[in-house]
Amino acid sequence: MATPQKEKIVDEMKDKFGRASSIYLVDFTGMDVNLTNELRRNFRDSNVEYRVMKNTLAKLSFEKAGIEGMNDFLTGVNAYAISYDDPTLPVKVLKRNKEFKEKPKLKAALFEGQVVGAEKVENLANLPTREELLGQLVGMLNSPMTKLVNTLNGAMSKLVYTLKSLEEKKNN
Predict the structure, then answer these.
(1) Taking the chain, what is the end-to-end CA distance rounded to the nearest angstrom?
(2) pLDDT of the residue at 31
(3) What DSSP character marks residue 130?
(4) pLDDT for 11-28, tens place per residue?
(5) Alpha-carbon distance 167 to 147, whole Å?
(6) In this structure, which CATH number among 3.30.460.80, 3.40.50.620, 3.30.70.1730, 3.40.50.970 belongs to the domain 4-127?
(7) Residues of the chain with pLDDT > 90: what percent?
(8) 103-158 confidence digits (pLDDT tens)
């Protein structure tokens, strides 16, 4: 790693790997240019960074970032899908687009500090997003209060109807 350009790349990627909520290792062997450009566009639209770099530079970047376990998967040609917000976004981008069913192939992921193999990466696509989980939580927290309000309103309505019927009986 003699050149300053390579050192700059390693330092830049070390910072990105350190800030990332998830890093997906993608094998893009056999992808044509059009499919690769479509993949890049989909990642960019989802705020996912997609980078290709040499395995030796990736190993150094992972080591400098203090990330262990990813080096075992660094064989062949690899790209890195890096998400800073929702850790499941990269795999969801790949799964929601039919043209990406066969290629590229997910090899591994660093998800919430844990290195996960290809078989478990597929399960991440089925996880709800952070916003969906927060929405579900708010709904669950709001449900008992809504039931209480409806119960109190029902009791108040019954009281009002009872008083109204008593008033009508007295007037008749």
Answers:
(1) 101
(2) 83
(3) H
(4) 999 999 988 988 999 888
(5) 30
(6) 3.30.70.1730
(7) 19
(8) 788 888 888 788 888 777 777 667 777 777 788 888 777 777 777 777 777 777 77
Of the candidates 24, 154, 8, 162, which has an alpha carbon nearest to the alpha carbon of residue 84?
24
Q: In 112-151, which positions are buried (b, 16+ CB within 10 angstroms) versus exposed (e)?
A: eeebbeeeebeebeeeeeeeeeeeeeeeeeeeeeeeeeee
CA distance to 13, 127, 142, 166, per residue, from 155 (Å): 63, 41, 20, 17
What pLDDT does residue 144 have? Answer: 75
Instruction: List the alpha helices (DSSP H) in the chain.
Output: 4-19, 33-45, 55-65, 89-96, 118-124, 130-171
Domain ranges of the chain: 4-127, 128-172
Q: Look-up: residue for tokens 């094998």? A: 27
What are the backbone dihedrals phi and psi of residue 136, each rounded to the nearest 5 degrees, phi first? -65, -40
Q: What are phi and psi of 83, to 5 degrees?
A: -115, 135
- Confidence (pLDDT) at 100: 61
